[in-house]
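agent> fetching stored inputs for the zinc ion docking request
agent> found them:
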Amino acid sequence: MRLLKTEAIVLKNNLIGETDKIATLFTKSYGKLQAVAKGARRSKSRFVNAIRTFVVANYVIFEGQNYYYIDQWELIEAHKNIEKDLSKFSVASYIAETINKILEENQKSERLYLFLKHSLKAVDELQIDPLIFISSYDLKLVSLLGYMPQLDNCVVCGERENLKYFSNSCGGAVCINCKNKCFDAKPLHEVTLKAIKYFLKGDYDKLQNIKVSVVIKEEVDKIITAYMKEHLEIEFKSKDFIDKLQNM
Ligand SMILES: [Zn+2]
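agent> prediction call returned; pasting tokens
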């Protein structure tokens, strides 16, 4: 029987059997895995809080014949504010879902793990417009996965001025002279480009109290969503989800 000792973040949990739950954990040392918490559906179970979504904890997990089982756990971070605030909860759910979709079973990435941990802490502790938070998170995520858009220079010729277009296939900003060299180049407002740069490069704490108009926020979101779809080949957001966030 193999024993795994690792820090992990709970991405989601489901019911299994009559009294148990199974958690999808992103472990720091072993990647994504499913672990059963025996008896976790009983209200007095010692595992009730161990598998709450967004919890960060140290776990001792043993490998059974068909499943992993949580044996012991010790809380590191409960993220209490996320549970109490619907807007924070929606953002955190989106974050956990994207990471869950990206990761294959047993796929390990310490960089992605630390990014997830940092992002959840920011959702919990900071007051940031939910759509701005998600745009910033998306940009940081695609960049971490190796698809950072080029925003300071034209992706085709390197020109720094007149960046008035954006192309998913070329991978970033395109100047007026090169717009025909990227078939999907779309007009880009100067303010939108500025916002995208700021959301990508600034840490989350720089996003508190910034004022961005609804039009720009939506344009940024549209560009990033299409860019992620092009490069990660996954669609993460439903239109309903974005509308819901806008109204929070
Ligand atoms: Zn150019």
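agent> quick read of the result: DSSP finds seven helices and eight strands in the chain.
agent> awaiting further instructions
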